[in-house]
Specification:
Elements lengths: L8 H10 L34 E6 L6 H14 L5 E5 L6 H13 L4 E4 L4 H13 L3 E5 L11 E4 L2 H15 L8 E5 L5 H15 L5 E6 L4 H14 L5 E4 L2 H14 L5 E6 L2 H9 L4 E6 L4 H14 L14 E3 L4 E2 L4 H4 L7
Parallel strand pairs: 1-2, 1-3, 3-4, 4-5, 5-11, 6-7, 6-8, 8-9, 9-10
Antiparallel strand pairs: 10-12
Subcellular location: Cell envelope
Protein name: Sugar ABC transporter substrate-binding protein
Organism: Lentzea guizhouensis
Length: 347
């Protein structure tokens, strides 16, 4: 779940200024069949059928919208390729069961395993075992403890989420030095939550603001409603709220509605379809959300296929797929919401 922060605030802010939403693996899209060129000048035909690739896929239980979207996107992506056979096991939050699932993939001699571990550290030994058995492992979202446990890793950007949210808040509150900014975090003990909060605080400091009121929830609807109710009771005036997670945001929205408050605007987190629809309609407190891509599982499927077939990313000169792909955390507003709605998840 948590992963190391690999971006600095200056670099993220520069990317935000460009307004370019970077995504992984775009060189494999159908309209780009044939891809780019490798170092020898040969065409890279990413989407042309090749050697059959059997991929095992395992992820935690789909107990909220984002996680359900991860698995659904992976299945849909695999279905686009006639040379991919996907074996999906039931999602589980039982570490021992997930280890057993990977062991079964190893015994079945699959070509690749795309694994979003419930606990990256706990799944590291079995991922190492798979790699030693010659199976290509693609690690998704929650990093293993060893760089040798995966051929490639696909990550979101938790720190970048905070920077994106804070930069948007700064832009909206420009010149309002006494603005009251509130934050509804996720689980405080998790490094991913800590990274998001750090990025948010760093971005706010750049415009002379800071978080005045902060509460933590647990990434659930119930905890979001409870945390938001506590926040609204404690703070009589708020100008802006950043909520880390749109799934818990369903409860946050309920608490706001019950309070009758409406003097502030909200920025969501993760990028759910229901929040994006509210942004598009412009009829609620949400004016933006920051994406934590639920396409990571699908990107893992593409990388696994390319790695096993010895292909590269069509938009890169390198002849191998990268060791790590970190996805961007763009801000979705009314101006660009139509671009992101098609890949949004339902909370």
């Amino acid at each position: 779940m948590p992963h190391k922060r690999t971006t600095r605030i200056a670099a993220v802010a520069a990317t935000l200024t460009l307004g370019v939403a970077l995504t992984a693996c775009t060189g494999n899209t159908p309209q780009n069949t044939g891809g780019g060129t490798n170092q020898g000048g040969a065409r890279v035909a990413n989407d042309e059928p090749g050697k059959k690739v059997v991929i095992g896929f395992s992820a935690p239980a789909a107990d909220h919208g984002w996680m359900a979207a991860i698995t659904n996107a992976a299945k849909a992506e695999a279905g686009k390729y006639s040379d991919v056979e996907l074996k999906v096991v039931e999602g589980t939050n039982d570490v021992n069961l997930q280890i057993s699932q990977v062991e079964t993939f190893i015994n079945d001699k699959v070509d690749a395993i795309v694994l979003l571990p419930f606990d990256g550290a706990a799944l590291t030994p079995v991922a190492l075992k798979a790699m030693k058995a010659g199976i290509t492992v693609i690690n998704v979202d929650r990093e293993f403890d060893s760089p040798f446990a995966a051929r490639s890793t696909v990550l979101g950007d938790n720190y970048g989420m905070g920077v994106s949210a804070g930069t948007y808040v700064c832009d909206r509150l420009k010149g309002k030095s006494d603005a009251v900014v509130a934050e509804i975090a996720g689980i405080d003990s998790l490094p991913l939550t800590q990274d998001r909060s750090k990025g948010f605080a760093d971005a706010l400091s750049g415009c002379g603001l800071k978080v005045a009121n902060r509460v933590a929830a647990e990434f659930t609807v119930e905890s979001g409603e409870r945390a938001a109710a506590n926040l609204l009771q404690a703070a009589r005036k708020i100008d802006a709220i950043w909520n880390h997670d749109d799934d818990q945001g369903v409860g946050v929205a309920a608490a706001i509605k019950n309070s009758g408050r409406g003097e502030f605007f909200m920025v969501g987190g993760a990028g759910s379809a229901n929040v994006m629809r509210e942004i598009k309609a412009d009829n609620g407190p949400h004016k933006a959300t920051v994406i934590y891509p639920s396409t990571q599982g699908a990107d893992g499927i593409r990388l696994a296929r390319l790695a096993v077939q010895g292909k590269a990313l069509g938009d890169l000169v390198e002849v191998e797929v990268p060791r790590e792909v970190q996805l961007f955390a763009p801000v979705v507003t009314k101006d660009n919401v139509d671009r992101y709605l098609p890949t949004a998840f339902e909370s």
